[in-house]
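Hi, does anyone understand the following?
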Amino acid sequence: RVGKTRLIMSTTREVEEQLSEMALGDEVVAATQFVPEDVSSSDEDDEEDDDQQAKPATAPTKVTTTPPDKDVQPVAAAGAATTAAATAAAAAAAAAAVSSSTTKENQTKLGQSRALQSNKSAEAQPETDRSSAFARPSDPLPQNLEQLPEVMPLLKSKDPEDVYRAVFYLRKLLVVEPNPPIDRVITTGCVPVLVALLARPDASPRLQFEIIWVLTNISSGTSEHTRVVVESGAIPLLVRLCGSKSEDVCEQAVWALGNVAGDNVYARDYVTHCGGLQAIVAVASKSHARMTMTRTSAWALSNLCRGKPAPPLDAVTSVVPLAVRLLHVNDAEVKRDALWTLRYLSESAEFAASLIRQGLVPVILQLLVHPSMAVQTLALRIVGNLVMGDDATTQVVLNAGVLPVLAQVLKSRKHIIRKEALWTLSNITAGTQQQVDAVMNANLIPSVIMSMNDDSGDIAKEATWVVSNALSTRIPERVQYLVAQGVVPALVHQLGARDARQIQVALDALHSVLSAGQRLAATQGAAENRYAVYVEECGGLDKIAELQNHSSTLVYNKAHGILSAYFEVDEDDEPVDDAPKFDAPGGGFAFGDGDNNGGGGFRFS
């Protein structure tokens, strides 16, 4: 899964309006040699809705990720992690645990990363782009690489102003768009020196602020760049500085930790191991913090909850009530990042019960009709993740009144909104008979069938899944209701889809209809299967026959099986391997498709 990345220009953030499905490569960040062992790519989703690349910034970068399977490292207490002994032990453990893999340069950040960039309109003025109270040098060094060789001597100067001017110069270099010279800065060997300066007890807040800004923008680059920051020993210092009395320093430290945590799960877990998660939770929990602090903390928390394998439940227990509380903050950016956090947590079944206990469901249902599409889409995905769980969790969501809200959402003009709503419905109709009946009683089926007829692509595909799951039990009354709503011509229409999987789902649904019709005819002593007649009248027989020429073996087998079971056709053609087999007593048709969950199965979108 490829993560979303977000570029921060001064204090404004680019907002993604669609969900991103994340695809992970094998990149890794080092925590004193963060190199994973036996890393396999985790690219399990069919679609990527919104892929963006991480970009450098003039303010720190933010990153979030979804990485491959890997054992999660133990979480240490924040206090212990800040000691030299604990840091050395953690670094050694990290190096030993992840010592066999390579990283790729210029890979997409595994999450949402933000780089701090100065506002162009503010560049003509003194440094006011981040509303910092710190004074800037009256004669800043030029923004060019010619002065770079002079940085190291200045950093080692005994004159605090020389040191500050050098750090300020480095920061100015790293806010250059679009390609800040991160490699050139690292090559000077300044990163360990900057970390040593940050560790000095007599370091002034304004110097700490500039140093952390430099480290933040370095970690907004590639995984190799982030590795340099981690291996320098900066993480425990940044955790400690989250408790700084200076709000500028505190916020910048949170931002830097968010960038590192967003690079991949190993970096994420190392930040948590060093106490970073709890430190950021403490910052985000402050009731009187300035809004930019709350925004940055909410974003950093989303990076610390993102990725697969998910963080241990005990490590993020305190995050759930905080994220739910942040949903009530009257700020769109905070609300979105809290939703991202809850979306990541809702992907893991073990977190579902905790989310429900915290009263998440009623709050999320209100956000399904939020005016912001970004908020609405995230809320839909959270609901979809919850109903993808067990039947009891699905029932909690149904009891909270999700179906009337989904009926309203299905009227949206936004493609992604309708798609997510239909995906959510498809997982509800994959539940118990009572849950399927609830969908029908809510009068949602007409809207679903309308989407099958009027829409194309993934919306029609999701709608087809809804009715296929609903039909899978072949209960006569349910089938009769769906047929009366026009499901047969809608399914026949889907047989012309380009996507072979969509055709297979439509054939499964038609098979359920025809099987129910066959049983109904036997019960009533009728001479013919009236549903088979209806399929033929809708042009379905010809389309099914044509599908015997389809390039997909599974499509051919399903089409051939339907023709053989329910229609009088020539038997010249024999089905190939994996052809459907007849069930015993009712002459029903069992579709032997290893690729299909047979209806009623949960799908991961």
